[in-house]
Amino acid sequence: ARAELMKMEKMQIVSQMAASISHEIRNPLTVVKGFIQLLQTGRLPRETEERYIRIALEELERAEAIIRDYLTFAKPAPKETEPIDVATQLQKVLQMITPMAHMHSIHVSSSLEHGVVIGNAQYFQQCFLNLLKNSIEAMPNGGTLHVAAENRGTSVVITISDNGVGMTKEQVRRFGEPYFSTKEKGTGLGAMVAVKIIEQMGGTWTIESTVQKGTTLTITLPASRVRPPTAEQSAAG
Ligand code: ADP
Ligand code: MG
Question: By C-alpha distance, which of 96, 81, 72 is closest to 222?
Answer without folding.
Answer: 81
